[in-house]
Design goal:
This protein has 386 residues and is an alpha/beta fold. It is built from 9 helices and 14 strands. The strands form 4 sheets. The chain has a 7-stranded mixed β-sheet, with helices on both faces. A 3-stranded antiparallel β-sheet has the order 12-13-14. Strands 5-6 form a two-stranded antiparallel ribbon.
Length: 386
């Protein structure tokens, strides 16, 4: 078949598919709820109670315990529920620990660039900034590990992830700060290589927004207790009191008032994950979804992966290129799918190159990824037709 024949076939009218994805929720955050979720299934005993009450602290600690179990997190690492989603958690880490030594910031998508902005314009640290274009990774073999290194494990807005933790030396002098919000629960992370990790429930768990999770390894705790930053710290960032770590934060005594409804929602998702077999079950679902989407892309000459190299391609926030598409075309494309109730929130991030973004995390069913394929064909033909 010639190129012109392929193009003619693509532009020919495409019948509207008869079957839609059962759950057309493909947003990259907040993401699809776990299968079987409904508000009636959430525990309510803690609702209307103080988070400082016995039931409140018990449920917060239970949520932390479930996260530790699901992530296979060693006892050396602490878990705290903090305000402000992943952004709040990561900025809490930056404001409380950076400045003790040099800083290297890695950026290959918009959130990494956000941490660059914080380091340069807000904290005025003069970091070494290492960048790569959307769809690519910088050279990870040339980093100065005498500095603290900040990076996104899985770039939500570019669909690019680090391949593994082998590039992080065990004898590093600086700390690693991993924005892992689209990575936790989808990859088996090497916790011995991560000193600080942050995420929010709204990604792979399909939880609610507004709350972040901060994970600290022993080297990060040492930094907190031995170093005092030069700048003032807001109350919601303070993790140390009288030179000692505020341990209560990591035992369910949150810094500010959490939503117990959001906590119960996260507990539902974590119990669902446990029923799948924990981390292995979550990873298997994400892998199956990403593989299903790979097949869809491979079968269509007008679709491509923004991250061309498979080894650095996200298995959760998969970013796609659309041949000849600009921002207006993508808006129309995504709008057609939303109007039909076939797929919600699939346009790429506003700062990324124009394209689609399909969430493939564990709460999405593979059958819904597969059912999306003919709808992509239909929307593409409709958008092309004008």
């Amino acid at each position: 078949m010639t190129d012109s024949t392929v193009t003619d076939a693509i532009l020919a009218p495409v019948a509207k598919p008869a079957t839609k994805p059962a759950r057309p929720y493909f947003s990259s955050g907040p993401c699809a709820k776990p299968p079987g979720w409904s508000p009636e299934k959430l525990a309510t005993e803690s609702l209307g109670r103080s988070h400082r009450s016995k039931i409140g602290k018990t449920r917060l600690q239970y949520c932390i315990d479930l996260m530790r179990e699901a992530l296979r997190l060693p006892d050396t690492h602490r878990i705290g529920i903090v305000p402000g989603s992943d952004t709040g958690a990561f900025e809490m880490a930056m404001w409380t620990m950076l400045g003790a030594r040099g800083v290297t910031t890695l950026a290959w998508e918009s959130f990494g660039e956000g941490w660059v902005t914080d380091a340069v314009k807000q904290l005025r640290l003069e970091p070494n900034v290492v960048r790569a274009d959307y769809g690519q990774l910088p050279d990870l073999d040339v980093l100065d590990w005498s500095t603290d290194v900040l990076f996104t494990w899985n770039g939500t807005t570019s669909g690019v992830r680090v391949p593994d933790g082998e590039w992080i030396p065990a004898d590093r002098e600086g700390l690693t700060f991993a924005d892992a919000t689209s990575a936790v629960f989808a990859y088996d992370l090497p916790w011995d290589k991560i000193d600080v990790a942050t995420f929010s429930w709204q990604k792979v768990l399909g939880g609610e927004g507004a709350h972040g999770v901060l994970i600290l390894g022993p080297r990060a705790v040492e930094r907190l207790t031995e170093y005092t930053p030069a700048w003032p710290l807001p109350k919601v960032f303070r993790l140390v009191s009288k030179g000692a770590l505020t341990e209560g934060v990591f035992k369910g005594e949150t810094i500010n008032t959490p939503s117990m409804l959001a906590v119960e929602d996260a507990i539902f998702a974590l119990e669902w994950a446990k029923g799948l077999g924990g981390l292995d079950g979550l990873i298997a679902r994400s892998n199956a979804n990403a593989a299903a989407l790979d097949k869809i892309v491979a079968a269509r000459p007008w679709l491509g992966h923004l991250a061309e190299l498979h080894g650095i391609r996200s298995k959760t926030s998969v970013c796609l290129t659309v041949e000849g598409a600009d921002e207006a075309f993508i808006k129309k494309f995504a709008g057609l799918l939303e109007k039909e109730g076939a797929a919600y929130d699939v346009a790429g991030y506003r700062d990324a190159p124009p394209g689609l973004r399909i969430w493939c995390g564990a709460t999405v069913d593979t059958a819904d990824i597969e059912a999306l394929a003919p709808w992509l064909d239909w929307a593409y033909a409709e958008a092309k037709a004008g």
